[in-house]
Amino acid sequence: MFALFLVILLAAAALAAVGVLADSGLRWWSAFGRLRRDLKNGNVPALPSLRPGISLGGHNAFDRSVVGRAAKGTINCAA
Prior knowledge:
The chain is mostly helical. It folds into 2 domains: 1-47; 50-79, no CATH class. Helices cover 59% and strands 10% of the residues. It has 2 helices and 2 strands. The protein has helices at 2-40, 65-72; strands at 53-56, 59-62. The protein has a two-stranded antiparallel ribbon with strand order 1-2.
Protein backbone atom coordinates (compact mmCIF):
# COMPACT_ATOMS: atom_id res chain seq x y z
CA MET A 1 0.00 0.00 0.00
CA PHE A 2 2.82 2.39 0.89
CA ALA A 3 4.60 1.54 -2.38
CA LEU A 4 1.45 2.46 -4.32
CA PHE A 5 1.34 5.79 -2.51
CA LEU A 6 4.99 6.47 -3.42
CA VAL A 7 4.40 5.56 -7.07
CA ILE A 8 1.38 7.89 -7.24
CA LEU A 9 3.36 10.65 -5.51
CA LEU A 10 6.26 10.22 -7.95
CA ALA A 11 3.89 10.27 -10.93
CA ALA A 12 2.22 13.47 -9.65
CA ALA A 13 5.61 15.15 -9.15
CA ALA A 14 6.70 14.12 -12.66
CA LEU A 15 3.46 15.44 -14.13
CA ALA A 16 3.90 18.76 -12.31
CA ALA A 17 7.52 19.04 -13.53
CA VAL A 18 6.47 18.34 -17.12
CA GLY A 19 3.75 20.97 -16.84
CA VAL A 20 6.17 23.60 -15.56
CA LEU A 21 8.75 22.79 -18.24
CA ALA A 22 6.10 22.89 -20.98
CA ASP A 23 4.84 26.27 -19.74
CA SER A 24 8.37 27.69 -19.69
CA GLY A 25 9.08 26.30 -23.14
CA LEU A 26 5.94 27.88 -24.57
CA ARG A 27 6.83 31.23 -23.01
CA TRP A 28 10.33 31.11 -24.55
CA TRP A 29 8.87 30.04 -27.92
CA SER A 30 6.44 32.96 -27.82
CA ALA A 31 9.10 35.48 -26.80
CA PHE A 32 11.53 34.43 -29.52
CA GLY A 33 8.69 34.32 -32.07
CA ARG A 34 7.85 37.91 -31.24
CA LEU A 35 11.52 38.90 -31.42
CA ARG A 36 11.86 37.26 -34.85
CA ARG A 37 8.70 39.02 -36.03
CA ASP A 38 9.92 42.40 -34.74
CA LEU A 39 13.34 41.98 -36.36
CA LYS A 40 11.71 40.91 -39.63
CA ASN A 41 9.60 44.10 -39.63
CA GLY A 42 12.66 46.25 -38.97
CA ASN A 43 11.83 47.03 -35.35
CA VAL A 44 14.95 46.62 -33.27
CA PRO A 45 14.05 46.28 -29.58
CA ALA A 46 15.80 48.68 -27.24
CA LEU A 47 18.53 47.12 -25.16
CA PRO A 48 18.86 48.12 -21.50
CA SER A 49 21.49 50.74 -20.96
CA LEU A 50 24.38 49.38 -18.94
CA ARG A 51 26.85 51.68 -17.27
CA PRO A 52 30.58 51.07 -17.68
CA GLY A 53 32.03 48.18 -15.77
CA ILE A 54 33.60 48.52 -12.35
CA SER A 55 36.14 46.21 -10.76
CA LEU A 56 35.08 44.21 -7.72
CA GLY A 57 37.72 41.93 -6.31
CA GLY A 58 39.42 41.43 -9.65
CA HIS A 59 36.16 40.72 -11.50
CA ASN A 60 34.56 43.19 -13.87
CA ALA A 61 30.87 43.71 -13.28
CA PHE A 62 28.22 46.04 -14.60
CA ASP A 63 27.47 48.87 -12.23
CA ARG A 64 23.95 48.22 -11.07
CA SER A 65 22.49 49.96 -8.06
CA VAL A 66 23.00 47.10 -5.59
CA VAL A 67 26.54 46.41 -6.80
CA GLY A 68 27.46 50.09 -6.59
CA ARG A 69 26.14 50.38 -3.05
CA ALA A 70 27.90 47.19 -1.98
CA ALA A 71 31.20 48.46 -3.36
CA LYS A 72 30.80 51.70 -1.38
CA GLY A 73 29.74 49.85 1.75
CA THR A 74 26.61 51.96 2.29
CA ILE A 75 23.94 49.29 2.45
CA ASN A 76 21.70 49.83 5.48
CA CYS A 77 19.41 47.01 6.54
CA ALA A 78 16.60 47.99 8.85
CA ALA A 79 15.35 44.86 10.57
